[in-house]
Amino acid sequence: MFRIVQLATFLLFAAIVAACSETPPPPPPGNPLVIAPTPAVEISLPAPTTADLIDNMRRADLVAAVEVLRLEPVSSQAAAPCTLQGVTYRIVEVLKGETASEELRVAHPVCLGRPFVDSRAIGLSGAYFEPGRKFVLFLERDETGRMRYGADAWISDYYVWDDRNGTLVDGEELRGYIERAKKASGGSGPSGDPFSRGRRRR
């Protein structure tokens, strides 16, 4: 009887060891309908000239250095080649204009082939518009609140009208060009493309 109990115990132990040593089944295949985001190195970046900066400085109601807090959903993929997407920012510094708020709710145009747009996913690139990333925005007041989420719980205060150069990665070099653009008057000022040298993706 003792031998039978020993044998049963051994067989049970062997079965447990065999079960634990089996290779786990492979994960289920990914959903083919889910679109993988475009890598950051494949996202196009703005290439403004000094004239672009001067024009944007003149037109903008507010120019602000900001930090991304949250990327809101794109409004509609069916509206391609252009649609809208909201972004919530924290203001780091106001470079032109005035605002009493510490946060900005901004409507961005999303047009295929434009800077920072992931044309595969049809939206602003999540690789760039992640929390903590810093930009300089050239903004007009959005009196109609063209972007709205959650039964109007989120309504855009400002709008980026320039879908090519209205959103720029913040940096010391850019601040210098913006300061010169602020001082330029009557369409005069430095000419050429200040971003033609040393342009980096990230």
What structural category arises from helix and sheet content? alpha+beta
Mean pLDDT, all residues: 81
CATH overall fold name of the domain at 44-183 = OB fold (Dihydrolipoamide Acetyltransferase, E2P)
pLDDT < 50 stretches: 185-192, 195-202
Biggest sheet features: 5 strands, mixed, barrel
SSE pattern: HHEEEEEEEEEEH
| Tally of DSSP helical segments | 3
Q: What's the CATH class of the domain at 44-183, please?
A: Mainly Beta
Q: What percent of the residues sit in helical stretches (DSSP H or I)? A: 10-25%
Distance between the termini: 74 Å
Strand proportion, as a percent range, falls in 25-35%
Shape: globular
Give the assembly state of these chains.
single chain
Q: What's the arrangement of strands in the largest beta sheet?
A: 1-2-3-9-6
| CATH 2nd-level architecture of the domain at 44-183 | Beta Barrel
- The number of distinct β-strands equals 10
- Please compute the radius of gyration using only Cα atoms: 26 Å
Layout of strands and helices, then pairs:
Elements: H1 2-21, H2 50-59, E1 62-74, E2 82-96, E3 103-111, E4 117-118, E5 123-124, E6 134-141, E7 148-149, E8 154-155, E9 158-159, E10 167-169, H3 172-183
Parallel strand pairs: 3-9
Antiparallel strand pairs: 1-2, 1-6, 2-3, 4-5, 6-9, 6-10, 7-8
Helix pairs in contact: 2-3
Task: Kindly summarize this structure in a few lines.
By secondary structure, the chain is of the alpha+beta class. 21% of the residues lie in helices and 29% in strands.
